[in-house]
């Protein structure tokens, strides 16, 4: 075989190898681009899910703080309630000492106990922490529920 042809054949084989390598590089780059697009999409989905979770948690926190909770969430039990203490008196004194109350419920005006429903958790916790309030010389006990 002619040395010139042999050299040409070698160059042709080298060029084919270069073309194959370039094709593999292009395919590899395309795969990287597709992987990056999938990763970006997954990241966006994760961000969306986390945003929804954060919103849910913020709503839960608001409820715990009493910024939208139900009427009966923050209930305390009042003991040693004398007949001379009306629900209105209890409410006025409890609100002055601790904060806003939805209502006071007393099953029977003669019963020695009642329930106070605070509007938010902070005031509810303050009342529980103090544990009592003096109303007209009567020491009213504040607890989280009746003793069983």
From TrEMBL:
- Please state every residue range assigned to the domain named RRM: 75-143
Gene Ontology MF term list: RNA binding
Q: Could you identify this protein by its name?
A: 538_t:CDS:1
């Amino acid at each position: 075989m002619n040395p010139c042809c042999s050299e040409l054949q070698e160059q042709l084989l080298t060029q084919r190898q270069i073309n194959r390598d370039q094709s593999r590089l292009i395919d590899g780059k395309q795969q990287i681009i597709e992987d990056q697009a999938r990763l970006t999409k997954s990241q966006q989905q994760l961000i969306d899910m986390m945003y929804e979770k954060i919103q849910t948690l913020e709503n839960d926190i608001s409820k715990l703080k009493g910024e939208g909770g139900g009427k009966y969430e923050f209930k305390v039990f009042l003991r040693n309630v004398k007949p001379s203490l009306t629900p209105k008196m209890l409410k006025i004194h409890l609100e002055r000492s601790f904060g806003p109350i939805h209502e006071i419920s007393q099953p029977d005006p003669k019963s020695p106990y009642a329930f106070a429903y605070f509007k938010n958790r902070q005031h509810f916790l303050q009342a529980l922490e103090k544990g009592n309030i003096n109303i007209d010389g009567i020491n009213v006990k504040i607890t989280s529920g009746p003793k069983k």
